[in-house]
Amino acid sequence: MGKIILVTGPARSGKSEWAETLAMQSGKAVVYVATAIDNPDDQEWHQRILDHQQRRPEDWVTLSIPVELSATLADAKPYTCLLVDSLGTWVANLLEQDESSWENILAELLETVDLVAADIVFVAEEVGWGVIPAYPLGRMFRDRLGSLVRQLSVLSETVYLVTGGHVLNLSVLGSPLPNREDAGTFRSQDS
Fold this sequence. Notes:
It is built from eight helices and seven strands. The protein is globular, with a radius of gyration of 17 Å. About 45% of the residues lie in helices and about 20% in strands. The chain has a seven-stranded mixed beta sheet, sandwiched between helices. It has one domain (about 5-190): Rossmann fold (3-Layer(aba) Sandwich), CATH 3.40.50.300.
């Protein structure tokens, strides 16, 4: 099994740059898995993508994978480090899926991650720190991404929070929540 790292944080915090640093430090061939779909008509979005592209070393392979993330991870070679940027965009690309389909896609991703021989660095946005969205699609996005990040953190060797240009290693500073099945045991030990 490869090493799984999760880098999370708010917009423009530096999380992608930190993930790029971790991928370079892996010593492996880096495959950048871009989940964004470029739209040249949206100049601001197009510029964000260009900014990311210009930071990458020339020897990195880039794959554009807006939806089929599980299959891409399953095909990864052990001598590679995949940098998946970002899970928020991937979730947004799948918002049209009904709840049952989404649960299947999520289960497949988590099962695949658990079996991949390559190292993987995931980048995920933190979106649940503000006002609850006033519209259903916004709430669905926030809830799906939050749940994915929480479940993926359990599989990750290290979880980082990047905020305000600072990196916090949550695996050292914090404690993971117990599984929901174990929650009663956890509470009784603290009582």
